[in-house]
TrEMBL record, chain A:
Coiled-coil blocks: none
Molecular functions per Gene Ontology: ferric iron binding
UniProt organism field: Halopseudomonas pelagia
InterPro entries assigned to the protein according to its UniProt record, in alphabetical order: Ferritin-like (IPR012347), Ferritin-like_diiron (IPR009040), Ferritin-like_SF (IPR009078), Ferritin_DPS_dom (IPR008331)
Cited Gene3D superfamilies: 1.20.1260.10
A Pfam family reported for this protein in Swiss-Prot or TrEMBL: Ferritin
Name by which UniProt lists this protein: Ferritin Dps family protein
Domain Ferritin-like diiron intervals: 170-239
UniProtKB/TrEMBL annotation, chain B:
UniProt-listed InterPro entries: Ferritin-like_SF (IPR009078)
Protein name: Ferritin-like domain-containing protein
Organism of derivation: Halopseudomonas pelagia
Length: 239, 389
């Protein structure tokens, strides 16, 4: 089995170069900060820029007449269909990316010797679940008359968040435990997001959609416990 | 010549044998955690050298029909050398961590060059620029700590101080105060020509890197900080570029550049600890000797002159890739208050009015470097770990 952590010649820490660190600390004392203040100046600048900033983008207007009518109807009821479309767009993007991330994880695990014969079939099943969930969301977006090919603002932001996970999973140097940790981050967020979506669709008056999402949520809950268990096994085997 | 004896007699590797595969170009990167910081310094420096080699040859080709093909042939190899070198940086470096590493290159290599440079005015120019890159390191280290919660010393590995230099606020000068006196091509020593080509290339790369990654940040202060320091790097390219004699022909500059590449790879090969990289530096030194040989042959044919007219002279020791802490502190103590008035270095109170006016307008809406670094004091494990706070 691949080791989760190796001892070696890591040179990043201050303890690795005690003389240099001492010298650096002397310099810090001799040449103090030249600009008054502290990190709160950065925070203040962020707050100020926030006031001047616009949004990431907008939710597209539904393309179909039916969609326009339906959205208009919901708007009259004060249910903000654009919010729902935005969050559905986010879930669709997340599941789509999720399929690709599991494919990256599978490539890594297939190239790694392991005693666990169930590991790869288990991850393949999760990959297929994510693909199925993607279709459920796509159909829900179409039911609302919205465009499942558009990138909504929340979909865009979800993509930004997923960049780190993708970098970890596709890096050939990362090991199985590190990859499982990245998948756990993915699944924990996914799980909470499906919970929110079930609630949102239900309150927006879309019981059929909410029911289909509940099924996905049950599967996502299994994903979290599966990935968590796999990670625990990896670590326990080497503890 | 020390280390490069018989540079003009060694034909190196012929161009047709300088071959690559994609896999080899984008091969295994260095380890951010386990490789020595100076291995990364060499990687960054040599990418700067190679990208500048491409730049110079593209401009040369725009002015010389008969050189277009040989320049295109050499450039193709240099493109692949640049790729093989730059792809050694591992992707777990955040852009800001890579930035800290770039500034370490600027400080340690410029300090080494300043001490090796025989021309006093040129050496003064390196010391002047050095204190500005030294300050950039401090501002970026504060940004890294306050944006990502990371310790810049994980990258610097104790070799380089993280304290204020000449404050970035004051780096912004009018263009006329960034131009310098050039060396005289008929009088200058070879190493003087090599230094100017080397440091100009390195600064150019830093400028281009900041221009590319600056807009990828979401944090508004980080975006402004990159805009601010990229502007200073453009000034540095102007400054160091003007150290070269404008009366040199393109071919003379080309010969100097190829000799510089041989010298730089030779310095890397001499001091590299990582055996895989040592082999790469040695291989590329052979490639550069091949390029130099081609350039010399074309020089003889087209300018009907002896390359030794351009490349004669002793070379001092190789570029010293090691901590220049004591030298940098001495320069900091003695020269932090220097400013410029045209090509002259002057005390702070005699700085050119043009620069003061220029800067006043540019800084009138706040100075990002000041916002990012207010009160910043480096501590092992970030300022959040500081026992003093």
């Amino acid at each position: 089995m691949e080791k989760a952590a190796e001892l070696g010649h890591n040179v990043t820490g201050a303890q690795m170069s005690p003389e240099d660190t001492k010298s650096l600390l002397q310099a810090v004392e001799k040449y103090p900060p030249d600009i008054k203040g502290d990190a709160s100046r950065l925070a203040l600048a962020r707050t100020e820029m926030r006031k001047e900033s616009g949004p990431v983008g907008s939710v597209p207007i539904p393309g179909s007449v039916k969609g326009v009518l339906k959205s208009g109807f919901d708007k009259m009821l004060g249910k903000q269909p654009e919010l729902l479309v935005d969050k559905l767009g986010e879930r669709l993007a997340y599941e789509r990316t999720g399929v690709r991330l599991y494919e990256a994880a599978l490539a890594k695990f297939e190239g790694t010797a392991t005693d666990d014969k169930e590991l790869i079939p288990t991850l393949r099943r999760i990959r297929d679940d994510e693909a199925a969930h993607m279709k459920i969301v796509k159909e829900a977006i179409e039911t609302l008359g919205a465009d499942p090919t558009a990138m909504t603002p929340c979909a865009d932001v979800a993509g930004v968040m997923a960049q780190g996970i993708m970098q970890v999973l596709t890096d050939p140097r990362t090991n199985v435990s590190q990859a499982l940790n990245a998948l756990l981050t993915l699944e924990l967020t996914d799980n909470a997001a499906w919970e929110l979506l079930v609630d949102l669709t239900s309150k927006a008056g879309h019981p059929k959609i909410a029911a289909s999402f509940e099924k996905a949520l049950a599967e996502e809950e299994r994903h979290v416990s599966t990935i968590k268990a796999l990670l625990q096994q990896q670590l326990a085997a080497q503890a | 010549m020390h280390g490069l004896t018989g540079i003009l007699d060694n034909k190196g590797c012929p161009l047709e044998k300088q071959q690559f595969t994609w896999k080899e170009m984008a091969s295994r990167p260095i380890s951010k955690l386990d490789d020595d910081a100076f291995t990364r310094v060499r990687v960054i420096l040599m990418n700067g050298v190679e990208t500048d080699a491409l730049r110079l040859k593209h401009f040369g080709a725009r002015f010389n029909r008969e050189l277009q093909l040989p320049l295109a042939q050499i450039r193709r190899v240099e493109q692949h050398q640049a790729t093989a070198v730059n792809w050694l940086l591992s992707a777990d470096h955040s852009p800001l961590e890579t930035t800290v590493a770039y500034e370490q290159v600027a400080i340690e290599v410029t300090a080494a060059v300043a001490q090796n440079e025989p021309d006093p005015y040129q050496a003064q120019t390196y010391r002047f620029g050095l204190l500005e890159d030294f300050d950039h390191l401090y501002r970026y280290s504060a940004m890294l700590d306050r944006l990502e919660g990371k310790d810049a010393n994980n990258i610097l590995q104790g070799y380089t101080d993280i304290v204020p230099g000449r404050v970035t606020t004051d780096h912004h000068r009018a263009p006329e105060d960034d131009l310098r006196e050039s060396y005289d091509k008929s009088q200058a020593e070879l190493i003087t020509k090599i230094h100017a080509a080397l440091i100009t290339g390195a600064e150019y790369q830093t400028h281009d890197y900041y221009m590319n990654i600056g807009p990828t940040f979401t944090d508004p202060v980080a975006r402004q900080l990159y805009a601010e320091i990229a502007s200073v790097e453009e000034q540095h390219v102007t400054q160091y570029g003007s150290l070269q004699d404008p009366d040199e022909s393109f071919m003379e500059k080309w010969l100097v550049h190829e000799a510089m590449e041989v010298y730089a790879y030779s310095s890397c090969a001499e001091q590299e600890d990582n055996p895989r990289l040592k082999a790469l530096w040695e291989r590329f030194m052979e490639y550069e000797l091949g390029h130099l040989n081609m350039a010399c042959e074309l020089f003889k044919k087209l300018e009907r002159r002896d390359p030794a007219e351009v490349l004669s002279g002793e070379l001092p020791k190789m570029i010293q890739f090691k901590s220049q802490r004591e030298f940098v502190r001495k320069v900091l103590d003695e020269e932090v208050d220097l400013r410029t008035d045209g090509v002259d270095y002057v005390p702070k109170e005699k700085e050119s009015k043009a620069s003061q006016t220029y800067r006043k307008q540019l800084n009138s809406d706040g100075v990002p470097a000041e916002i990012a670094s207010a009160g910043y004091q480096w501590a092992p494990g970030t300022e959040l770990n500081d026992k003093r706070s």
